């Protein structure tokens, strides 16, 4: 009886195929497919192996019963199902390349129907979605729950296995295109399951590329990675979709067996050409050098988070989520470092790639800055609960064409102390690039503007017109002169628990009204930063 129940979806699948009964309703194969999705992976492997072993054992050792003939038939049925499933998955890898954008729910309905039928379910036309705007909100109250994350884990495993198969069986470029197509479906599917709205906006016409491109993002949530493939779907390089290949933490994707093997995500993105950095070994410069070579020599785009880790999520005084900061990713060992919220690796990657392209006399490197808002409201650092009915926005920022002076010699000291003028030139240029990356990233998310708006509306600040005007003038003047220190302090201050705010905000306002010197701001920044580390 148990064996019959385990094989019932497969038996019905065969009966409906022979009778063509499934043509009456698409729901029938889809329901069977959902059962098959859960049962088939272990029924057609572990369970069928046990049945076969048991049958062979009784054939030679006895007593042998007619039941074992039925067991052999079940084994044969599982074997046929395995062959069909492999054929279907390869077909869907070819089929997905026909479409520029697929509506995620329609894709998964089709996938389950195909699992529940021996007939070809792949249509010539499918519903599509707009890469710049999708809205799956239902108009209900926003809630926090685990369901979209659990559902997302199964969807991730499904799409990762399809992408791995595509990269194994299809020609090289087609395999990579299939990976990116499945990755775009992955992002859209999560937006749909969590009932979110995702927008991609740009103050200027979207850039078109005909050369090497580095994508630079701020980092707030693990969703930044999952959603970027879809959000950038309208951007093209040499007529094809962008192929973002992230520089990612090895401990997150490779060393974690759940992510690498069970979900298959680590294995999938490793095969797709992602670049992994060991954050514990102090060899970040070597990973950046390898990434620069990959960017300069291969037909793909490297993507990076200059912050190196996710920024801490912010909350209102009532405890509701308010996305995440920008200057809160500083290293505990140097909280006083004015640009310590960014790692030096991004500047090195830009410079090394630009030097390699210059050496090979190729077109200059394009660096595109992309700001992300809202992902930390949905899934902040330190929480697995997903907040539904929320907005996420990708802001396409400045595109910087990196052109180096021809007469200056640059040489990477490769982690060692500089020993020649070329090393000194390299380190000086590195600092210039580092500061530019910081400026452009902050601008892409309008971070200084948002901080200014928030403090001006904060009731803990005196609300008379003169006080607010002096505060506003000071911060606008600091922004115009690229004095980021007051904004660093304010960002980290709001990342503290709300009981700290009143005391610190009053002191912050006093410093602006006094036109305090740099040393006073540095002392205040150090105090706030240490309190944040102890949070």
Structure commentary:
With 535 residues, this protein is of the alpha/beta class. The chain folds into 3 domains: 2-115, no CATH class; 135-308 and 343-444, no CATH class; 451-533, no CATH class. It has helices at residues 2-19, 27-61, 67-95, 104-115, 147-169, 172-193, 223-231, 250-253, 257-262, 265-272, 284-297, 345-359, 375-378, 421-444, 447-456, 465-480, 485-494, 501-513, 518-533, and strands at residues 133-135, 144-145, 197-202, 213-217, 236-237, 240-241, 244-249, 275-277, 301-304, 313-315, 321-324, 365-373, 386-387, 391-402. An 8-stranded mixed beta sheet has the order 1-3-14-12-4-9-7-8, sandwiched between helices. α12 crosses α14 and α17 packs antiparallel against α18. The mean pLDDT is 90.
Rg (CA only): 27 Å
Spatial order of strands in the largest sheet: 1-3-14-12-4-9-7-8
Instruction: State which percent range the strand residues make up.
Output: 5-15%
Give the uncertain stretches in residue-range form: none
Largest sheet, in brief, is: 8 strands, mixed
How would you describe the oligomerization state of the chains in this entry? Answer: single chain
Query: Number of folding domains?
Result: 3
SSE blueprint and pairings:
Blueprint: H1 2-19, H2 27-61, H3 67-95, H4 104-115, E1 133-135, E2 144-145, H5 147-169, H6 172-193, E3 197-202, E4 213-217, H7 223-231, E5 236-237, E6 240-241, E7 244-249, H8 250-253, H9 257-262, H10 265-272, E8 275-277, H11 284-297, E9 301-304, E10 313-315, E11 321-324, H12 345-359, E12 365-373, H13 375-378, E13 386-387, E14 391-402, H14 421-444, H15 447-456, H16 465-480, H17 485-494, H18 501-513, H19 518-533
